[in-house]
Every structure is written in structure tokens, then in C-alpha cells.
């Protein structure tokens, strides 16, 4: 019987439950879309790696100074003499030396094809017969002026076989003729440029060296062949099996994709968390409106458990429908994410059981858990209540709620403080748990907070709009719990968005301050994308009219006192001037074997000027450098400076990281510099203003990305406002009929509901933005030593969010207000 009751209630409240299902759909869509997208990308990477290096049994490479260091600085070349030695090892088949590095093609428009900050790699390599790629048309490169590029790069750059183009590497851009197009399959957006081996060595490495040497096997197992090869290798090199090589690459990609999956799932869980407020609120109102009906069920013999199961049954049905539609919407979201990946998202969607399982688990569990407490409350309705006309669910005292909410808020703030201070085993987990506790605590306190805040927010409407404004304020105050639950959903989304925007504004202000305080050069020349700067560029810049000096700087990686570290190298006097370096002890006369560190590094290691510091460079050799100076913290320099001669002694092919330019700071000088570098489309000239603008652009992009992800929770919250108002209108049907009967017009009635919606939405926004500013200030205070030294609150943006919240209130009220205005007065009055 109770099953029929559940089905009848579902049929009788279709619109209400559809609105509830929307919250489930949006939350599940985020979860399912994330899982489908990452599964699809993993499948594409697996397909790519199954093609690359399939015939490699053993690979010879330089040993990494720091295990897991894949930033490019740790890669040392392998001498060509090793290739000759390998040819005499029994079991080795077709050993081939590989050369790889950065190489980019300039298209017909004069711009580098596929260049992007932190975008897909631009791969330069040597073309080998029987390698990983096949020719689609043309032939292999055979001389210093010939090149093969991948077909997709040719299409983007509007290039074809026979065309002459410029190729950008670490040296001067070279004019080359395209002699072939390679079929690379789906390289996930990466570009491929291939030269003959001598040309590749000259442009990207050094003559007589390879990046690595790969070989097949004549029948010997990979492990046996690896051991045989290892016996003829010089120190500093190692042999690994092809299987291990492919697994390392797959592991790196898997780590990246897992991070991306967790990153997106965090936002999905935020949306689901917000949706749970909506579901709880909806079922609470549905149960309250059906109090007499449920009491009648109890009166005719239904047990408490049966009433609970009937309400839970409705929740399960909503969860199943919402999960099904959410799964379908998730597939659409995954497809949309793939289109944003460009060439990297060309492989189509991959469906596994994981998104399906999690979609239904999340959708049903969240819905049932959110409906459980309203269901329990429904079961406690006494049968005698069916005989009363004005029956209502009993409300608990707010005292326990206030005490528990206060405790959770204080405990959450304490956990956030401990996490930001770095105390405990996992600071990130502490901050996350603390933020969750604060949200729950504030949500529990919201009914108490709502009364004074709603009175203030509603006062202007009451004064300006007369009776509709006063009624709207009273309606919002009538049930503080409901108002708080509705506003809490919006509070969470806007709290997180506000936190992100406060951090963004803080980062922009802090970067501006750092550039003003630490950038003392007139111009800085840097490479856009992953490429480096050729050694000849500094000389060309130095001869530019208006330029007094152009000094190259280098970046490297090493083990310093046994720990992985990055460092800067170059003319230390120029670096110190360009970075306005404050030397606190010693000096900048670093010599041929000197090192400088900042104060924190010196303190951590107990070093003083004159100390001997062991440094293991990327070639595996260790030098004992003398500490000649200690400087104050500099975000532009980093922690360490090593003398240029020491850097050059351990680097086969020096790579210029940036060029510091002293010149007359005028528009004419900058124009002259850009003219000098017109043949280098990968290089950019920056002054203090453009450095700030570039930093702001990156911060703005990151803030916008996070805000878009968090917008899903705001959309779900808006659905919650619609739901609450719609149910509230139904609940107040008789009251609305009486208002119409005593003379209130349809327009006034709609205005009343709109104002009520606006007040609730703005209350949630004010609460959320207040929490967001507090979170942002706490994060800035904790990260002040990491470069966020200036707290900035984007007041203009917050005002815009407040207006957006009011607009959300207006839009959310459209349908409930329209429905209220269309009610038949006599039928409404006669409603029980």
C-alpha cells in the first residue's frame, strides 16, 4: 500500500520534485563529466604510448641527479661514442641515437604555430628510419636546410611540402624547406619538427651527443639485454628496459590526470554539497505541507517506519531520475571539456562503469541522506493531528543548534588556522576540513543571523514599496530556518567565489609591489612558451641603439647539500642590480666557484659567509662551492645564485633563460629592441609595466577559470531559491487568496514575491561574501612569506556579485510570482 502512496505523491508533486531533481542533475553531471573526461583522456594517452617506442627493448640515458626530476634541467646528453660501443654488444639490434629538444615552426602569418604558455609541447627531434612516426607525404630530411613537420602543424600554419619556413630552436631561427609531412596520429596538440641527425644535434644539443640511445633485441629478454648493455656504459649513464621507460611515461601522465580529476571532483563535491541543502529544504517543506495527510496515514494504521519509507521512497525516485539525467548531462559536459582541449581532445569519449557507478551512488545517497531527517520528522506526526485544522510539525529549540553551530564554526576556524600555519600532518586536509566545518557551523547559525540581517535588508523595500515590501520582509522572517537553508546554498558558492577573487586581487597587488620593489632593469627579454634563448641574442641586443648593456642569465637545477634545488647563474653584479638585491652579509664577488643564498636558506642549513657548500650538478659531478654572500628574500631571484663559470663547467649546451637589458627607458628604445628581435617570434621584450600586465593576465585567467567552476554551485543555489518560493507559494495559497480578496493587485502580489526572493538571495550573498573575505584574509596572512604581502579586497567585484545575487532573486521569483498571480481567488480562499 505504501508503495502506491509513494507513487501517488510523486505524480501529485511532479513540478516540485522536478525542481529538486535539477539540483541532483547538476551535481551528478559535474561528477560524471569529470570521470568521463579523465577516462577519455587517459585512453588517448594509452593509445599514444602504445604506439611510441613499441620496438624499444632497452634505452640508454644519463642518470638523473634527482630522481623524478623531469623539468628538463636534469637531462644530460649521451656521447656518440656510447652508440659505437653498443653496436658490439651481443643481442643488440639496430641501436639508434635520439636527439630531442624544443623546436617550433613559424606559419605563413609570421607567428609560431601552436605556441601557448604552459601549452602542449613543441617537439624537435631527429628523423630516423623505422622510428615512431611514418611519412604521410614527401621524404625524410637529408641536409641542414631540410625539415619534416607533422601534418596538423602544416595545416594550422598553412604550409605544404616544398614551402620554405623558419624553424625556431635555442639558436638563431633557421630558414628550412619542408620536404615531408609526418603522420603522428593524435599527439594531443603537440607539434613535431624533425631534422636529419647532424642538424638536430647542432640545433638542439651538441655535435657528437644524443639525448638517449634506444635499441631492439635479437631475441634476448629486455632484462638480460639491459644487464649486458650496462657493462659497457660509462659512468653517469644507465640502461633501462623499454617496458620501464613506457611505464615511467605513463605514470607521469597518470599522476597529472589524477591531479586534474581530483581538482575537478572537488568542485563537483561543492556543487553536491550545495545541492544537499536544496534537497533537504524541499523535502522539509513537502513534509510540512503534507502534515495532515501523513497524520491520516498514521491514523488508519501506517507505522512510523512505513511513513519514513514512503518519504524515502520519493527521495530514491528523485535520486534515480536525477542521476540518470545527470549522467547524460555529464557526457555532454565531458564532450564540452574535450572541445576546449583543442587537438588534445580529438579522440572521442570513453565510457567505463566507473562514472555510472559513481553517478547513481552520489545521486541516490545524497538525495536519501538529505531527505532522511524530514522523513523521520514525518514519521513522528501523531495520528490525532489528522483531526486538527491547524496542524504543523513541531520545531525544536534553536539553543542546541546555536551551541553546536558556534562550536563547529570555532573548531573549523581553529583547523584552518592550524593548516595555514603548517601544523599537523596534512595542512591541506586541515584547511579543507576546517572550511567544511565553518560552512556547516555558519549554516546552523544562519536562522539566528537571518533575523536582524533580513530586517535591515528588507527595510528599504518596506519603506519604498509600502504594503508589498512590508509583507515580503515578514514572509522572509516568518520561517528563519527555511530562509537560512535557502540562503545557505547561495552562501557557500559565493563564499568560495569571493575567496578566490580576494586571493586574485591580493596576488595582483602583491606582484605589482614586488615588481616595483625588486625589478631594477630597464628591460627583460624572455622566451614565450617552452623554448630558450640563443647565445647570440645578447650580442644583437647589445648593438641596438639606446642599449648600454645586455647580459644573459641562466637557470639550472642541482642537488645542493643533498637536496633538489633550482638556481640562477650569470653576471652576479648585473643580476643584483636588476633585482635590486639586498645583500645582508658578504658580497656579490662570487668568483669562479662561489655561491650565494638567501637568508632563509642560510638559516635552515646553518651556513655563514665562507662556508663550503657541496653542489651536485646535472652531469653527476660534485663541486664544493664557497658561500660568498647572503641576500634578503627575493621572489624574482629565488633562493640561490651560482657563479657562471661553475654553471658552464657542468653544462654541455648552455641555455639562456633571460637577458637583462640596461637602456634608455623610452618608447623608441623598446621599438628598436622589438625591431632587433623581429626574426625571433618566440622572444618578448618586457619593461616594468608589461611585466605587471603579464602577471595580472595570468592571475585573471586563473581566477576566471575557478570562478566558472564554482558558478555551478551558484546555479544550483538559484534553483533552490526557485524551489523554496514555489513551495512557499503553494503553502500560502489560502493566504494569497485572502490578500487578493482584500484588494491587493496581481502586480503587488508579484512584487511581494520578487522582493522576498531578492531579500533571501542578497542575505545569502552578504553572508557568503563576508565569509569569503575572512577566508581570503586568512590565506593572505598565512602566505605573506610566500609572496602575498599585500591584502587587497576587490570591492567593485563584490558589489557586482551583490547585484548578481539580487538579479538571481528576481529571476528565481519569475515563475512562482507568475503562478501566484494567476491563482483563482475563491479557490485559493477555500484551500485547506
Short description:
With 832 residues, the protein is an alpha+beta fold. It has 24 helices and 24 strands. About 1% of the residues have low confidence.
Topology, element by element:
Elements: H1 2-12, H2 14-51, E1 58-62, E2 78-79, H3 80-86, E3 92-98, E4 100-102, E5 104-105, E6 122-126, E7 134-138, E8 146-150, H4 151-156, E9 164-168, E10 174-183, E11 191-195, H5 197-204, E12 209-210, E13 212-217, H6 222-230, E14 237-241, H7 242-289, H8 291-299, H9 304-340, H10 353-379, H11 398-420, H12 427-465, H13 467-478, H14 480-518, E15 523-527, H15 537-542, E16 547-560, E17 563-570, H16 572-578, E18 583-586, E19 594-598, H17 599-605, E20 612-616, E21 622-631, E22 640-643, H18 644-649, E23 656-663, H19 667-676, E24 683-686, H20 688-731, H21 733-741, H22 746-782, H23 795-821, H24 825-830
Parallel strand pairs: 6-11, 8-10, 17-22, 19-21
Antiparallel strand pairs: 1-13, 1-14, 2-12, 3-13, 4-6, 5-9, 7-10, 8-11, 9-10, 15-23, 15-24, 16-17, 16-20, 16-23, 18-21, 19-22, 20-21
Helix pairs in contact: 1-9, 2-7, 2-9, 2-10, 2-20, 7-10, 7-14, 7-20, 9-10, 11-12, 12-13, 12-14, 12-22, 13-22, 14-20, 14-22, 20-22, 20-23, 22-23
Describe the structure.
Among the domains are: 56-253, no CATH class; 446-520 and 688-832, no CATH class; 523-686, no CATH class. The protein has 24 helices and 24 strands. α7 runs parallel beside α10. The two termini are 25 Å apart.
Amino acid at each position: 500500500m505504501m508503495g502506491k502512496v509513494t507513487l501517488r505523491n510523486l505524480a501529485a508533486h511532479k513540478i516540485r520534485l522536478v525542481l529538486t531533481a535539477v539540483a541532483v542533475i547538476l551535481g551528478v553531471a559535474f561528477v560524471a563529466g569529470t570521470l568521463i573526461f579523465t577516462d577519455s583522456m587517459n585512453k588517448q594517452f594509452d593509445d599514444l604510448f602504445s604506439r611510441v617506442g613499441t620496438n624499444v627493448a632497452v634505452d640508454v640515458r644519463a642518470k638523473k641527479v634527482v630522481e623524478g626530476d623531469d623539468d628538463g634541467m636534469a637531462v644530460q646528453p649521451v656521447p656518440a661514442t656510447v652508440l659505437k660501443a653498443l653496436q658490439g654488444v651481443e643481442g643488440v639490434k639496430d641501436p639508434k641515437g635520439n636527439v630531442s629538444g624544443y623546436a617550433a615552426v613559424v606559419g605563413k602569418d609570421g607567428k609560431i604555430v601552436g605556441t601557448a604558455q604552459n601549452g602542449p609541447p613543441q617537439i624537435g627531434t631527429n628523423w630516423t628510419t623505422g622510428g615512431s612516426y611514418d611519412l604521410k607525404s614527401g621524404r625524410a630530411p637529408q641536409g641542414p636546410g631540410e625539415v619534416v613537420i607533422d601534418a596538423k602543424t602544416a595545416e594550422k600554419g598553412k604550409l605544404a611540402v616544398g614551402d620554405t619556413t623558419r624553424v625556431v630552436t635555442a639558436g638563431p631561427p633557421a630558414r628550412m624547406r619542408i620536404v615531408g609531412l609526418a603522420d603522428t596520429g593524435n599527439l594531443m596538440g603537440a607539434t613535431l619538427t624533425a631534422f636529419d641527425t647532424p642538424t638536430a644535434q647542432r640545433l638542439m644539443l651538441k655535435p657528437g651527443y644524443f639525448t638517449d640511445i634506444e635499441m631492439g633485441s635479437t631475441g634476448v629478454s629486455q632484462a638480460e639485454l639491459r644487464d649486458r648493455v650496462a657493462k659497457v656504459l660509462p659512468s653517469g649513464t644507465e640502461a633501462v628496459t623499454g617496458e620501464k621507460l613506457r611505464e615511467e611515461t605513463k605514470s607521469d601522465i597518470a599522476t597529472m590526470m589524477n591531479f586534474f580529476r581530483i581538482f575537478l571532483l572537488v568542485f563537483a563535491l561543492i556543487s553536491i554539497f550545495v545541492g544537499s541543502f536544496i534537497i533537504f529544504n524541499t523535502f522539509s517543506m513537502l513534509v510540512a505541507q503534507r502534515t495532515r495527510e501523513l497524520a491520516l496515514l498514521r491514523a488508519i494504521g501506517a507505522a512510523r517506519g512505513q511513513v519514513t519509507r514512503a518519504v524515502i521512497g520519493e527521495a530514491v525516485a528523485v535520486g534515480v531520475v536525477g542521476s540518470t539525467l545527470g549522467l547524460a548531462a555529464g557526457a555532454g559536459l565531458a564532450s564540452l571539456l574535450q572541445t576546449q582541449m583543442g587537438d588534445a581532445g580529438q579522440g572521442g569519449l570513453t565510457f567505463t562503469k566507473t562514472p555510472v557507478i559513481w553517478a547513481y551512488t552520489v545521486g541516490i545517497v545524497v538525495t536519501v541522506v538529505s531527505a532522511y531527517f524530514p522523513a523521520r520528522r514525518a514519521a513522528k506526526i501523531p495520528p490525532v493531528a489528522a483531526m486538527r485544522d491547524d496542524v504543523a510539525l513541531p520545531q525544536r529549540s534553536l539553543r542546541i543548534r546555536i551551541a553546536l553551530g558556534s562550536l563547529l564554526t570555532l573548531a573549523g576556524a581553529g583547523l584552518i588556522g592550524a593548516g595555514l600555519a603548517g601544523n599537523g600532518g596534512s595542512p591541506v586536509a586541515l584547511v579543507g576540513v576546517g572550511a567544511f566545518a565553518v560552512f556547516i557551523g555558519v549554516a546552523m547559525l544562519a536562522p539566528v543571523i537571518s533575523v536582524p540581517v533580513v530586517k535591515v535588508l528588507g527595510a528599504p523595500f518596506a519603506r519604498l514599496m509600502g504594503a508589498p515590501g512590508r509583507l515580503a520582509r515578514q514572509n522572509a522572517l516568518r520561517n528563519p530556518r527555511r530562509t537560512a537553508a535557502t540562503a545557505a546554498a547561495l552562501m557557500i558558492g559565493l563564499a568560495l567565489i569571493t575567496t578566490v577573487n580576494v586571493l586574485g586581487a591580493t596576488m595582483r597587488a602583491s606582484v605589482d609591489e614586488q615588481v616595483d620593489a625588486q625589478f631594477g632593469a630597464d628591460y627583460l627579454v624572455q622566451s614565450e612558451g617552452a623554448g630558450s634563448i640563443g647565445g647570440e641574442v645578447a650580442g644583437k641586443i647589445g648593438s641596438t641603439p639606446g642599449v648600454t648593456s645586455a647580459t644573459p642569465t641562466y637557470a639550472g637545477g642541482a642537488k645542493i647539500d643533498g637536496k633538489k634545488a633550482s638556481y640562477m647563474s650569470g653576471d652576479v653584479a648585473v643580476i643584483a642590480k636588476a633585482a635590486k638585491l639586498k645583500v645582508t652579509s658578504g658580497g656579490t664577488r662570487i668568483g669562479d666557484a662561489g655561491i650565494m643564498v638567501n637568508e632563509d636558506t642560510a638559516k635552515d642549513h646553518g651556513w655563514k659567509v665562507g662556508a663550503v657548500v657541496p653542489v651536485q650538478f646535472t652531469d653527476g659531478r660534485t663541486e664544493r662551492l664557497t658561500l660568498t654572500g647572503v641576500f634578503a628574500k627575493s621572489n624574482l631571484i629565488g633562493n640561490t645564485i651560482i657563479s657562471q663559470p661553475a654553471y658552464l663547467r657542468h653544462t654541455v649546451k648552455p641555455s639562456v633563460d633571460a637577458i637583462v637589458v640596461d637602456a634608455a627607458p623610452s618608447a623608441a628604445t623598446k621599438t628598436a629592441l622589438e625591431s632587433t628581435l623581429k626574426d625571433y617570434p618566440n622572444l618578448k621584450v618586457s619593461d616594468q609595466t608589461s611585466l605587471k600586465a603579464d602577471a595580472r593576465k595570468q592571475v585573471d585567467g586563473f581566477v576566471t577559470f575557478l570562478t566558472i567552476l564554482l558558478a555551478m554551485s551558484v546555479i544550483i543555489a538559484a534553483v533552490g531559491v526557485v524551489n523554496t518560493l514555489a513551495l512557499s507559494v503553494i503553502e500560502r495559497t489560502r493566504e494569497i487568496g485572502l490578500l487578493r480578496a482584500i484588494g491587493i493587485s496581481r502586480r503587488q502580489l508579484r512584487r511581494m514575491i520578487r522582493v522576498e526572493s531578492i531579500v533571501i538571495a542578497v542575505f545569502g550573498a552578504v553572508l557568503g561574501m563576508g565569509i569569503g573575505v575572512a577566508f581570503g584574509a586568512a590565506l593572505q596572512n598565512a602566505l605573506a612569506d610566500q609572496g602575498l604581502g599585500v591584502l587587497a579586497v576587490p570591492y567593485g567585484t563584490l558589489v557586482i556579485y551583490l547585484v548578481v545575487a539580487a538579479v538571481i532573486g528576481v529571476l528565481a521569483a519569475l515563475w512562482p510570482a507568475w503562478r501566484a498571480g494567476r491563482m483563482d481567488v475563491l479557490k485559493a480562499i477555500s484551500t485547506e
